[in-house]
Request: fold
Amino acid sequence: MNKEKLVIIFIIFLSLFSLILRTYRLTEPNHYYFDEVYHAVTAKAYADNNPAAYNPFSPAPKEGTAYDWLHPPLAKLIQAGSIKIFGDVPLGWRLPSVIFGTAIIPATFILAYILFGPLTAIFASVVIAFENLTYVMSRITMNDIFLVFFVLVSFIFASLYVKLSTSEESFSHLGGAKKRTVYLFLTSISLGLALSTKWPGLYTIAAVFVYLLWDQIKNKQVDLLKFIPILALPPIIYLASYGQYWVQGHSIGQFIDLHKQIWWYQQTRNLKHSYSTTPLYCVPEGLDGPKTWCPWVLDVRGVYFSYEQYGTKAGYIYALGNPLIFWAGIVAVSYLLGKFIEERKKEYGLVLLGYFIFWIPWIFTPRVLFMYHYLPSIPFLSIALGFSLSKILKTKLMFFALVALGVFIAVFFYFYPITSGWPIEIAAIDKYMWLKTWR
Reply:
């Protein structure tokens, strides 16, 4: 059996194992938790074709819930389709997140493979598969995990486009130009899907635009007309994602008013939450309140999603990153940054662009956030780690690379109980609180 087949078998096995792990006890807790009180409720309203879900002034459908009109509809439409199939039950709400959350693993593998080859791809996919925050977000009815998937797909097609456009072989036959056109349109469609899931899809458009322009400048073949699909298709797809809204008879004026309300809410500075943060600070009293240093990149402040009582035991779901992956990732990103400064390779630049663009702009946010807003950066952190470990593997310290990967996996399972809701003795939570800020 050749190496390529072994690599394919590996990623299939890893993805299937991750799918099983994410599906196990998916229906616990058997009620809404954290932001499911917005997203699952809205997905059900979409499934029922209820126009109230699009109205910022609609009364709450149930006590303790509210409609999510703040985000574009695509993720909730996918969840609504699942509810239509499986019913208005936890499996129906959460299964799409499991599917897309699992798909992030082969997507990370493919992007890393295109950029750096199979060894980096193997390391990167293992890292993302055993990263706790990614695991948590793959099991809850929210839209973030969908955004991450579409971001990765956008970067994959953009990378294929650049790779083909810079390949001498691609100019030796007529099919090369056709393939480039296909990849460009697939990139544009993926960007539209990202934007239709969550507004940070705009960061994805900006990143891909910069990457493609940079490639043109390096090849001294600048043609801005080629970027028309990148800039034109995403807004069209975004409008199309509101298809149900238009079919329900809403007007363009109502659409504009809805987005005015969204923008107004996004400017609200003093929303209060015990676990609210910015990329650099904890801000439980809002942005104008007291601040303490707790940067996302250091995994300093997660978010408690759920506490469920099971007799004398309790199930915790804590949106916390795998601390060893987060901390080692800082070193890996720094190493990749040094390589980029030294060699100016576009592959390094793309990973760094994908990593930084999804959290640096949030430093200037006009509203509070949570640590899971760092989620889109984690696949690129994983690729940086995968690249670094693959380099170490080729040195006399190769044993260190394998041990590091084993430690990442072990730490994932160490924190598995408090990121999966597995019932533990209530007092046992103390052994997981490595940092005081995690409480």
